[in-house]
Write a structure and sequence with these properties.
CATH class of the largest domain: Alpha Beta
Number of domains: 2
Order of helices and strands: HEEHEHHEEHHH
Helix content: 25-40%
Structural class: alpha/beta
CATH topology of the largest domain: Nucleotidyltransferase, domain 5
Strand order of the largest sheet: 3-2-1-4-5
CATH superfamily of the largest domain: Ribonuclease H-like superfamily/Ribonuclease H
Amino acid sequence: MTLNLFPDADPPSLLHFESLARRSGYACIAGIDEAGRGPLAGPVTAAAVVLPDGVELPGVTDSKKLSPGRRDELYELIISSASAVGIGSSDAGLIDEINILQATLAAMKQAVSGLALLPDYLLIDGISKVPLPIPQKTIKKGDSLSLSIAAASIVAKVTRDRLMVEYDARFPGYGFAAHKGYGCASHLAAIAQLGPCRIHRKSFRGVREHVKVVNGEM
């Protein structure tokens, strides 16, 4: 069941949507966001964050507006301040199988399921609802409008970036530690020279042109 409890006007503060939810009777509100929809390699990673009522997290905003160092600092603050944090991930194989949107929603669902607390309301960045029987609201640019979503955006981004650094060691030559799998010129050149590796999204343009088909399989 989905309830439309909130106005569409820009909120006056980053806790506006959370406050409205609590005034409407909800006690455990989770903000949800993802990182990694656009890259050519690696997973799409989602985070769900439940913040305590009245929490203050100075500096927390859309992760894309922050430097890597500042994201790392705020990640630690969020982890230590949150009531619960859940992480979900869909790998390149699943992305190729069911498409990036459905893989993103699957990662979000996994993130919510991984929370130590059961949320009774979800605030989701974007326009797509998570396939769960929990009341929820999608918010365009929610990572700039909701503190819970902003916190989730930072957790998702830092978690995924750290994983891509690990992949850089496992799959050398592609530069994953630097570009995190995005389709920059150096990454495209590496794919053309080395061919895709196991974590590349073979259905994505920039990768699929270099996939070799052997016995009917990629």
